Amino acid sequence: MTKRERYEGVIGWFRENMKIAETELHYENPFQLLMAVILSAQCTDKRVNQISPALFAAYPTPEVMAVSTPEAVYEYVKSVSYPNSKAKHLVAMAQMLVKDFGGEVPSEMDDLLKLPGVGRKTANVMQSVVWGKATMAVDTHVFRVSHRLGLVSESCNTPLKVEMDLVKHIADEDIPKAHHWLLLHGRYICQSRTPHCIECGLQTWCKHFSGK
Question: What predicted TM-score, i.e. pTM, was given to this entire model?
Answer without folding.
Answer: 0.88
